[in-house]
Design brief:
Elements lengths: L1 H43 L10 H23 L2 H46 L4
Helix pairs in contact: 1-2, 2-3
């Protein structure tokens, strides 16, 4: 019985080490994408209409930078709790991005129906030859 417990501990330690290594490899990309999203949000804020939605890419960028920071903290402090916080930041990023995509799809569908009804009206008013 004790052999199975001791055999699992090294396996869990190996898995934890692999997760830490993967998160450290992700660190650079997370920070890069976070900075690019913040720049995108800042450029979006330049327009009057864009200022209403500019906070979303900025928020998403901050979440990615925070996740990257937690990944590097996990490596340097050897604290697995940092990985949990990193994953929570990534979870929130993906939830927000998924909601934004659902809203975007809804706007596209409404736009297609609106355009179709306008086009149908215009085509009815065109004289036939």
């Amino acid at each position: 019985m004790q052999e199975s417990v001791t055999a699992q501990q090294p396996q869990e330690a190996i898995i934890l080490q692999q997760i830490q290594q993967i998160s450290l490899n992700m660190n650079g990309w997370l920070k890069f994408l976070g900075i690019m999203m913040i720049i995108s949000g800042a450029l979006t804020a330049i327009s009057i209409v864009g200022i209403l939605i500019a906070w979303l890419p900025i928020w998403l960028g901050v979440l990615l930078i925070q996740a990257g920071g937690r990944a590097s903290n996990a490596q340097f402090t050897n604290n697995p709790q940092e990985l949990v916080v990193m994953m929570d930041k990534l979870r929130l990023f993906f939830v927000i991005l998924g909601i934004l995509i659902i809203i975007e799809i809804a706007f596209i569908v409404v736009g297609i129906f609106t355009f179709g009804s306008i086009l149908s009206r215009v085509m009815q008013d065109v004289p036939q030859f």
